[in-house]
Design brief:
With about 240 residues, this protein is α+β, with helices and mostly antiparallel strands. It folds into three domains: about 70 residues, Arc Repressor Mutant, subunit A; about 80 residues, YebC, transcriptional regulation domain (Alpha-Beta Plaits); about 70 residues, YebC, transcriptional regulation domain (Alpha-Beta Plaits). The chain has eight helices and eight strands. It has a four-stranded antiparallel sheet with strand order 3-1-2-8. A four-stranded antiparallel sheet has the order 5-6-4-7, with helices on both faces. Helix 2 runs antiparallel to helix 3 and helix 2 runs parallel beside helix 4. The two termini are about 15 Å apart. It is found in: Cytoplasm. GO terms for molecular function: DNA binding. It comes from Oceanobacillus limi.
Length: about 240
């Protein structure tokens, strides 16, 4: 369905090239999740999801602990979660999720980045309706049939299961994230190549070589912004 594993993997690999940037973004996201609820992941569902994602990106424990300790210490730095939507070349669509302590700065930065890289900002709702919020898990060393059996035994539903390269990808409703995760952990699966809540396009588009080059510059520029946490899109990068 929707985005294929090679796109998820390519996006992850691209982010891994700049680990300091990724660690900073996770530090902020962990801090916000810990501050909004309990600093204990077992009592804070949002924090638990962030930490599971951080694990797949090999975020050091020192960064995780520092962010949680900052939240425990009563730090008063406040962040707003904002979503921007826009368009790239030739029918490409993007969703940009941000965490910011300066809304005006972030809005101006995102708008300028779209404009400088061949894109255009859209209004709220202009793009998001073409995407589905989805829980995604990637598991190595198991077959599709084995994964399906694990989920069936736990009475957990999945939208889709696919084998892509050496990885089985499970797509589920976002509110099933913890149920899917627990089903796997009860079956002895504790390592995931991907484990996150994401936005998957209902239909992908394929761009020409020139348009794809321009599109990738736009995505890179958006991801380089300090306040941007996630960029989702509908382009098939395979």
């Amino acid at each position: 369905m929707g985005r294929k594993w090679n796109n998820i993997k390519e996006k992850k690999a691209a982010k891994d090239k700049n680990t300091s940037r990724i660690y900073a973004k996770f530090g902020r996201e962990i801090y916000v999740a810990a501050k909004q609820g309990e600093p204990d992941p077992e009592a804070n569902q949002a924090l638990k999801i962030v930490l599971e994602r951080a694990k797949t990106y090999n975020v050091p424990k020192s960064i995780i602990d520092r962010a949680i300790d900052k939240a425990k210490g009563g730090d008063e730095e406040n962040f707003d979660e904002l979503r921007y939507e826009g368009f790239g070349p030739n029918g490409s669509m993007l969703i940009v999720d941000t965490l910011t302590n300066n809304v005006n700065r972030t809005a101006a930065d995102v708008r300028a980045t779209f404009g400088k890289n061949g894109g255009n900002m859209g209004v709220n709702g202009s793009v998001a309706y073409m995407f589905d919020a989805t829980a995604v898990f990637g598991i190595e060393g198991k077959s599709e049939d084995e994964i399906l059996e694990i989920l069936m035994e736990s009475d957990v539903d999945a939208r889709d299961i696919s084998q892509e390269e050496e990885v089985v990808i499970v797509y589920a409703e976002p509110d099933q994230f913890h149920a899917v995760q627990e089903a796997f952990k009860n079956a002895g699966i504790t390592e995931f190549t991907v484990a996150e809540l994401t936005m998957i396009a209902q239909n992908d588009v394929t761009l020409s070589a020139d348009d794809q080059e321009q599109f990738e510059k736009l995505v890179d520029a958006l991801e380089d912004l300090e306040d941007v946490q996630q960029v989702y899109h509908n382009v098939d990068l395979g």
